[in-house]
Amino acid sequence: MAEPTLSALDPEIARLIKEENKREHETLRLIASENYASRAVMEATGSCLTNKYSEGYAKKRYYEGQESIDQIEELAISRLKTLFGAEHVNVQPYSGSPANLAVYLAFCKPGDTIMGLGLPFGGHLTHGHSVSITGMYFKSVPYGVRKEDCRIDMEEVRKLAKEHRPKLLWAGTTAYPRTLDFAAFRSIADEVGAVLAADIAHISGLVATGVHPSPVGIADVVTSTTHKTFRGPRGGMIFTKKEHAAAIDKAVFPGLQGGPHNHTTAGIAVAALEAQAPEYKVYTQNIVDNAKALGEALVARGFSVVTGGTDNHLLLIDLTNKNVPGKVASKALARAGMVANYNAVPFDPRKPFDPSGLRLGTPAVTSRKMGKDVMLKLADWMDEIVSAPEDEAKIARVAGEVRDLCASYPAPGIVV
Ligand SMILES: *Cc1c(COP(=O)(O)O)cnc(C)c1O
Fold first, then answer.
1. What pTM does this model have?
2. Domains plus CATH for the chain?
């Protein structure tokens, strides 16, 4: 007898996946960290590779039967080396956070001082936030942004670095709409003898094509997720100079992890191949053009856009002048088919779980080939919803319009 399909074996899970598929088709994905992996990436990810154990690295494994796996991992690495101009690549971290932990393990001892952008200013948990292991096991000295223009103040970073002499300095963000000056971080790291780690989790797709300047060759180590602008499967990757290759590889395995997720590695290899195509460069430029267009359209509708606009794929909106808390807005927008997240804005007087802002990103809508005309429509809808977040009739009407729009813009990897 043939093996049962998922829907025959587990109709509950099959139904939930189908519902999620429908949701991803019918709504506008505006979460800055999300994207749509291609059908090819998903095929590689949903393959027999999930069955295989491969502790170690190519040609130095602890299990037999690596004929295909070694080639897959080597292909992923060589494609990424070409794409990012990196001397050494590790594709085994299970995701972005474990990739960052490998940096700590490779370069720091518990109790060492580390510096990163504080979470309330757009930094990531793993850059030393108090609830993260990175803030518990290390002495964290966060830097912030300038009050006047909400941009990272490199003079403050330098001053803090000179005062606290960190072992490790992070340059990387999760809710920051402006270009990072990696060369300035490098000079500060050199002045105080710190290891410079760039975390390009959000922007690696833009970095791959030069739409955002690259830290590869400037930072000692560069970490990233593979599923945000890069548009691969969920995973992590680390680029380093040759001199740190052994330390990073040892930190990932056996320091932190066991067997790599080979199905993910194959998906990363496929995404790296896609990223080498000329269309991908156009795609990443369009992400930024769309974010700028959306930002300008929102400013024209009286929204307060943090820093006045964006250089990258995301916008941070301060809703204080609209008299609507971020969470009320994000929930109403989601009911209207525009799925984003509430977010703290710099110097937010409200609490993190109920902040003043919204974060919006254009990677996923750009993957659906939506352009500036859609961004203008989006700004109109957002304006309508934010000015009446409890008007359920209006919300239902907009949700219908969003559904109609989405019908003409198929999302990669989503079957309708
Ligand atoms: C998303 C993100 C990560 C963590 O990635 P996960 O895959 O969620 O663990 C790390 N650093 C930055 C800057 C991020 O934005």
1. 0.97
2. 44-275 (3.40.640.10), 286-407 (3.90.1150.10)
